């Protein structure tokens, strides 16, 4: 199965100049744990709810600071040509719970660990192992 069959295509993004507060509010509004950060339509980073807490609040970064101050600029991405199994392995190798899917540096979808679990892929040991590997504490 190709990843484009299960990825979420309606992906909300924010700009690097968006504030921590704006990004956190958007996460709450759309009930997600990460937001890709794009500039002129191109992916430049990603921010998770954990980033906001650990890199933002815990470091006493003001809530009106630009999200660019705390985003992860080195983003692992996938493409629509990947299979679900390849995406699962990529996520396991990098211990990530969300994978932006890009084309020409633009976000066209996102896959979460939950997407892999929800799509009844439990018979695929590769996906099942990915969930276990990512969920394990280091």
Automatic annotation (TrEMBL):
The family database entries (Pfam families) matched by this protein are listed as:
CBS
Query: Domain CBS: where?
Result: 7-63, 71-127
| SUPFAM superfamilies registered for this protein in UniProt | CBS-domain pair (SSF54631)
Q: Which UniProt keywords apply?
A: CBS domain
Quote the PROSITE patterns the UniProt record gives: CBS
* Keyword Protein biosynthesis in record: no
Q: Organism's domain of life?
A: Bacteria
**Mind telling me which PANTHER family this protein's record contains?**
CBS DOMAIN-CONTAINING PROTEIN, CBS DOMAIN-CONTAINING PROTEIN CBSX3, MITOCHONDRIAL
Q: What is this protein called?
A: CBS domain-containing protein
